[in-house]
Amino acid sequence: MPVAARVLSFVQPPPSGVVPVAIVYQPGNNESEAEASAMERSLARSAVSGRALIRTRRVAVSNLAQMSGTRAAFVTSGLRSYQNDLAETASEQAILTITSDTGCVVAGRCVVGITEGAKTQIVVSKEAARRSRIRFGSAFLMLVKEV
What we know:
Elements: H1 2-7, E1 11-12, E2 16-25, H2 30-45, E3 48-49, E4 51-60, E5 72-75, H3 83-93, E6 96-99, H4 102-106, E7 112-115, E8 121-124, H5 126-131, E9 135-136, H6 138-143, E10 145-146
Parallel strand pairs: 2-4, 2-5, 5-6, 6-7, 8-10
Antiparallel strand pairs: 1-9, 3-4, 7-8
C-alpha cells in the first residue's frame, strides 16, 4: 500500500489538500473484505502522499455511484466480473484506479497495477489512463511498464 499511495503523487497535476479515495470491495467476499481492511489500515499509516492527505471510504462494487467525488480508487482483487462497470465509472469521473490485479490493467480496465514480492512491479495501462484522463509525470513513466 505505501507504494500505491505514492502513485498519487506522480499524477499531473499532483493532488494537494484532502484527497478522497475509494476502496472498492465486494461485501460478503471474505478475501475482498480482508484486503479492503488491510488497505484502510495501511493508508491510515501512510496517509500523506506528496502534499495530499488521503481520506478513504469503502465503496461496495455493487454501488459504484458512491465513487463520485473521489480522485482515486484502490480496487481489491477478485472483482473480475465487475471490471467493465468499474472501468466505465472511473472513465466517466476521471478516477485513477489502482489494483494488485494486473489482469485488470492488461485488459485496459484499471490504470495502475502493483505487484509486490521480491521486487515491486508497477504496470500502467495507457488506454485506461487516457480514458480516465489521468496523466503521469515523465519520471514516473520511466520507472514503470506501460501496456
